[in-house]
Amino acid sequence: MVLGLLLAAALPEARASGRGDPALTVLAGQREWLQLLHYTPSWRPGGYRNFVDDPDFFLSSRGAHDPAAELTATLAALRTDPATQCRFPARTRWLGERLPGLAGELPPASCPEYEEWRRVLAVREAVLVFAASYLNSPSSMYGHTFLRFDSATPERRTPLLGWAMNFGATVPPDENWFVYAWRGLFGGYPGQFAAGPYFEKLREYSRLESRDLWEYRLNLDAAELDRLLAHAWELRDINFDYYFFDENCSLRLLELLDVARPGHDLADQFPNYAIPIDTVRAAIDAGMVEAVDYRPAMRTALRHEIALLDAGERALARRLADDAGADPAAFAALAPDRRRLVADVAYQYLRDRAVHAPPTDAITRQNFALLQLVNQTATAAAPPPPPRPVAPETGHRTGLVAVGGGLEESRAFADLEWRVSYHDLLDPTLGYPDGASLNMARVVVRVKEGGTLQLQRLDALEITSLAPRDAFFSAWSWRVNAGLERQWTAGDDVLVTQGNAGFGGSWAPLPSLMVFAFGTGRLEYNHALDQPLDLAPGVAAGLRLQGAAGITLASADHYRFTDGEDRTELALRHELILGTNLALRLQLARRVTDTDRVDEAGLALRYHF
Amino acid sequence: MKRVLIVAALVGTSSVALAEAPGGPNCGWGNMLMDGQSGLGAHVIASLTNGTSGNATFGMTTGTNGCSANGTLTYGGKSLVGAVMDEFSEDVARGDGEALTAVAVAMGVEESDRALFKQVMHDNFASLFPSADVTAEQVSERVVELMRANDQLARYVS
Fold it and tell me: ipTM, 2 decimals?
C-alpha cells in the first residue's frame, strides 16, 4: 500500500521526532486505530473521549484522549519492551500491517500465556447471544447481550462448553448489600469483560431469571476471530466506565465486532445509547449473522408443557409436585405419554419453585422422587418442544413518533408524541415480552383549538409488569411511573409533577385475556391543590385483550389525596396494528374529580422507527 | 491425555486465580440441585448491574455454589459431571439433553458413540443416582465404571 510505504519511509523521522510526525498522526486517525483504543468523538471538534477508565490500557499518559500520543508511545514500547507485544497483540498486529518495516525492529518476544490461552480456547465460531428483557432487573430491562465462543476442540465442541464473554459491572466480593444496590443503580462500579462457561450463563438467564435466549451465530472467519480474540486479550482486567442507564454492555460488544471486521463501524451507529436488540439488528444489517437459534427459558418450556395438560392432569401434576406419591391410581390411569408429561411438569415445576424459594431437605427429597418418576416415564414419546416465537429483532423498532387528534370535551386538539424507547401494553407484542411495558423519555405536545400550545405529558419512566397468577405461578404484578402530566384541577388544566406506583396481581382467564388489579400510591405536586404536595393512595383495575383486530386495554383508576380530593379515571384504548412498525390507536377517557368531569376522545397514528 | 486439556481450556489461563470448582466430595446432588440459589435477594441485586461478583476473571470463572471443594479447576470429563450435575441428572433420567451431550463431549466420546453413551447412562439411572445424597464424586466414578464396563466406551476411559 502506498500509505504503508510512505509511512515506512517516514519511520526513521518518526522515531526521531516523536509524536509530531505527520504520517503517524494520519495513522493514528485511522478508524481501526481509534477502534482498537476505544476512542469516541468528544463534543470538542476533533477531540476524543474514552470509556476505558484504566491507565493499564494506555501506554501514554495522554492516551485516553490523544490517539497520536498513544500510537507513538505504543511504537516506542514495542521497540523497547518485548512484553508489549504479549500485552497488546491486536495493536501489535495492526501496526505491523501498517508499518511494514516495524516487524524487523521489534525485539523477539515469546508470549506463552497468550498463546496458551488462544490454543486452549481454540475458537472456531462466535455467537452473539441476546437475553430477552428481564423487567425485575433494571440493567436488563431492555435485554442483554454477550458473546459466546465455541471451540473447535473435540472435547468442547458443544454449546454448553462454549466460553461466554460478558461485559458488566464488576463487584468486589463480600460487598455490603446496600452499597451494592446503590452503586449498581447509580454507578460506581467499573465495567469489565468477564467470562465463564456457557452452562453457567444458562443457569443465570434461563433458570434463575426465566429469560429466553436468542443465539445469533456470526459468520466471522478465522482472521476476524483472530483479531477479535487478540483484542479481547487486551481488555483483560481493564476497567471501563460503567453507566447503568447506558446499557453499554451491548455497545462494548459492537466495538469488539468493529475490531473483528473493520469497515462497518457498528458502534458509531449508536452515539448516545444502545438498546441491546438494536445492536443485534445492526449486526444483522451488516451481514454478520448467518443463523439464529432459540433457547427457551426453563419456565417458558414449563409453561408450554402446562398448556398441553387438561384441567385434571394439571391438578394432578400440581399435587405430584407437592407429593410424588400422591394419587397413584389417577397417575397410573393416564396413557404413557400423558404420564411422562405430567411427571415432567411436576418435576420442572418443583425445580422452578426451588429457584425462587430457600431449599429445604424435604424439597430435595421430593425433587429426587420426582426425578425418579421422570425416569420411569421416559420411555413414552417426548412432548413437542415449545414453539419458536417471533424473533425479537423482527419486532417493532424501539423509537416512536405519533401524530393524533381528538376532542377534549367539545374542544379539538392535535398531539405530537415522541418516545425514545421502548414498548407499552398496546404496542404490537410480536418479539416483545407479553404483558410488559417499558418506556423512557416520552413527550407529548398538544395544540388546542384556539391555538394554545402546551406540554401535555412527559414521562421520564414508565414500567408495568403483568405476570399472570395461576395454580402454578404466583408472581406479583407491579408498575411505576414518574413525570409531568395534565390534571384538571378546580377548572384549570394544570401541568403537575407526579410519581406513582402500583402493586398487585394479574390473571389470565383466557390465553388472550389478562385482568389486573393494583393497590396504588401517588405523590403529586400540583399548585392548584389546597395542599400542593400531596399523597394519594388508591386502587386500579383493568383488562387487556389481544385479538386478531389488535389489542384492547380498559382501565379504571381511583385515588384520594390526603386533603380529601378524589380522582377517577376511566380509559378504553384500542390499537389497530397496521404493520410491524405502524399502528392506529383509539383512546377514550373520562376523568372525574370533585369539581370537574372531562371526556376525551382521540385517534393517533403511531410509527416505530 | 487429550482430555486433560479441557481443564486448561476452561480455566483459560494459568495466571487466573480461581476460587473453587464445583463438584467435590462434600457436594451432593441435593447441593447441586440448589446451585446458584444461595439467596434470591443476592441474585436480584447482582442482576442490577449485570454484574460479575467476586472472582471476576477473564478466564473461566467457576462460580460458587456453596459446595466446598478445593478447586481442581477442572470441568474436564469427570468434574464436569459435578459442575452440571443437576442438569446431568435430569438428562440421564430422560435419556437425552445438552448436559448429557456435554459430559459425553468432555469425556472425549466421539459423535458416533454418543447415542450409546447416553443410552448406557440412561439405562443405569438408578445406579448413577441411587439417592438424593449421592455426591458428584460418586456419580463421576460411576460414569467411568459404566464406560469401562462397556466394550465400545471403554476406550475413552482407559
Answer: 0.85
